[in-house]
Design brief:
alpha/beta; five-stranded parallel sheet; 9 helices; globular
């Protein structure tokens, strides 16, 4: 698979492929206060990719921090994911948390993964097969997934600080304008208002339309309006989730090197 975003029709046509793994990355709650009508429904055969409780560091004071390569590989193996798996990830809001999973796999060196455009709402609308989540936890045959960690996809606080004094990178914040400009309070406690010095604001909703990514022409127009040149693009948000929506959207139309500041405002905005 050479696509980073696939349609529901593509997935339906390939749903019987033996190497295909469908991951459901839906969140029970989100900071954007978005609601779903499909909280107990999933694509038939999908495996739950638990972003909050499994695929985020539970020993960190920051939310949603990515796992180490060792633990990421172990949890993927438990989901029956193999080195040659073709992965399609979706969420029940259309496009919200699924790009975060796409980014995780890029970081871990597995590029054979795509986000389902429109997610579960589009799948249900097309009357494609679904099933109810079972109360019993499902176990899978242990996979042989391994990681090939690609540090270029990740920026930490120290690295971001270094970029503030040079002109080789542009920091793009995916939060709402009111939060970026400090006109609305942060939803998490103990965070000051405002934004990272020198960053620009592109709310993640700017690249979406009705739960789908906008057409490439519209995404390219948006990207070109920012005069990004060939600089490295570093994406940030509240806690590293919606920034991945922008990252994936821009990745489809630009060749700039891109990375995520995983700590995002949850780390940078801590009140001292």
């Amino acid at each position: 698979m050479n696509q980073t975003i696939v349609s529901i029709d593509w997935l339906f046509q390939h749903i019987g492929d033996p190497n295909l793994v469908i991951l459901d990355a839906s969140l029970k709650q989100n900071q954007a206060n978005l609601k779903t009508n499909f909280s107990n429904l999933k694509i038939k055969g999908a495996r739950f990719f638990d972003l909050k409780n499994i695929f985020s560091r539970q020993d960190s004071d920051l939310p949603n921090m990515v796992l180490s390569p060792q633990y990421f590989a172990l949890e993927c193996q438990k989901l029956g994911i193999n080195q040659d798996s073709t992965i399609v990830v979706y969420d029940n809001l259309g496009i919200y948390s699924s790009p975060r999973v796409w980014w995780m796999f890029q970081l871990m060196g597995h590029t054979n993964i795509a986000v389902l455009d429109g997610g579960l709402p589009a799948w249900v609308s097309a009357l494609y097969p679904t099933e109810i989540y079972s109360a019993d936890s499902t176990t899978y045959k242990l996979g042989n997934f391994i990681t090939n960690y690609n540090t270029g996809w990740l920026v930490n606080q120290s690295q971001l600080t270094q970029h503030l004094s040079d002109t080789t990178a542009i920091i793009i914040d995916a939060r709402k304008e009111a939060r970026f400009w400090g006109k609305a309070p942060e939803p998490r406690p103990n965070l000051r208002s405002g934004h990272i010095q020198g960053s620009i604001n592109i709310p993640f909703t700017k690249v979406l339309h009705s739960g789908f990514f906008k057409e490439k022409e519209a995404l390219l127009t948006l990207a070109q309006s920012l005069n990004l040149g060939k600089k490295r693009l570093i994406f940030s948000c509240g806690s590293g989730t919606t920034a991945c929506i922008l990252l994936l959207a821009f990745q489809t139309v630009l060749k700039n090197p891109m990375a995520l500041y995983d700590g995002s405002w949850s780390e940078w905005g801590i009140k001292n």
